[in-house]
Amino acid sequence: MCVELTVPGFVDLQVNGFMGIDFSSPDLTEESFLRACQALLQKGTAAFLPTIITSPLEVYERNLPVMASVIALPEFQGRLLGLHLEGPFISPQPGAVGAHNPAWVRPPDLNLLRQLNRWAGHSIRLVTLAAELEGADRLARLAVEQGMLVSLGHTLFSPTDLDRLSQAGAAALTHLGNGLPQMLPKFANPLWAGLADDRYTAMLIGDGHHIPDGVLRAMVRAKGIARTIVVSDAAPVAGLPPGRYFTLGNDTILEESGRLHNPTKGCLVGSSATLLQCMNHLASLGFLSLEDMLAIGFYNPLRLIGVNPELIPHPDNKLYFDDKLRKFYIKSEEPDDS
User: What is the pTM of this model?
Assistant: First the structure.
């Protein structure tokens, strides 16, 4: 049975770029950023947070105003919900730093955060930082005072760090399970600590490559529907064909399967999927109801960043769900049931 959804699409809190447009590139322009946003909003994503990763100061100074000017345009009201600042206040440690350049990582700096938010026209909605860094709690308090959601990511936190940052206002975990070393202590590690702490909502990359299917099921069940959000972590090459690309500062391979990785570092470099594709992967696993999936793909992310769902406009390309095929689709891209 196919049903038309009552929601306008999905809400993605982590999008690094789309169709070859890199939001952290020193060559980003208003025109290219606008074009990428328009394209993604036709692919089942109703609203999202453009994300800039750890970058040199001159890139922040250039790109944040560029993105802020587009976010302010009338056509993107209720669609571009602010910016996600993923870095530079993250762990520089191997594994935890992930695909970010450790040379550009910075310790928590209150004046720098204020400056970044000024460059962004006070449009930063979410900031990802490492909880174990000295001064992370002070930075978190300032971020919350300035209207930002604080999420912990690219971090090697302990339960004690989670306590301290929760008291400072942190409320989420950026792509839990990723941005971590391949080898961790069996029990005393951020994955278990993050799953066990009910004060934090976990954002999970649902592309089928970042988290194995069995682990994804277990993580959703551990956090519960109310504390789970699916994100794409879409890289700039999302929407492009398989091949070799330089993206987010990395020489990468995009495989036929959709897996995007840096073979030298041995790490993934974001995702090649849209949030619609991520939600379809989750749907294919068959353990969640439609109501559950709409919660983690639409209502939960909006609640986390404090946005009223009624403010998200409904596009002309309506979203449907085929219960037989366990697949979401846009009407113009009706699925083949053969």
Answer: 0.96
